[in-house]
Amino acid sequence: MARRKFSRPLGERRYKKLFVLATEGAETEPRYFKMFQGDGSVVHVHPLKGKNRSAPPQVLRRMDAYLRKEGLRPEDEAWLVVDTDQWTEEQLRQLHQWSQSKANYGLAVSNPQFEFWLLLHFEDGNGVGTSRECVARLKRQLPEYQKGAVDVKQFADRVAEAIERAHRRDTPPCGDWPRTTGTTVYRLVQSLMANC
Q1: Which of 40, 53, 82, 124 has the most CB atoms lying inside 10 A of its own CB?
Q2: Where are the domains of the chain?
Q3: Residue 132 has what pLDDT?
Q4: Is pTM beyond 0.90 here?
């Protein structure tokens, strides 16, 4: 049986799917998500960073400003990435309403914070209830861990495990955001990986 050659007409390139991410954190989250963007990748991650930690309404304002200026193709995705640790239900509800307004919008929320998603790369995270406990447990796995200076190579080979652990905790799947310790970041990461 002869092997079939894949050929693409000259001048045609596969479209790079754009993921626009507005993150609450200014360093850790953008660094982590850049991991999914490589030379051969058809994914382009465009994090919208703030100057420092910002409240969910500010994250949403950054996203809205970007979308007004740049637009978004129907095949692209726009995601808000926030924590629950300091924000009110009403603030989070605004973000959830935005994420429901279009099929290619998403909301990824970690309770209590993004570091819980990072922790799931190494363990189940059972017994973690506060941000302080979350960081302490992550530092047991990564003694050198410092917020904002994350070495994403430490997570690259463990993403599938983190997705599986987060998915298991999200049963039944929450419709908006986790009210107890958990994260829906795995939904964004699944979409990124499906397009890498």
Answers
A1: 82
A2: 17-195
A3: 94
A4: no
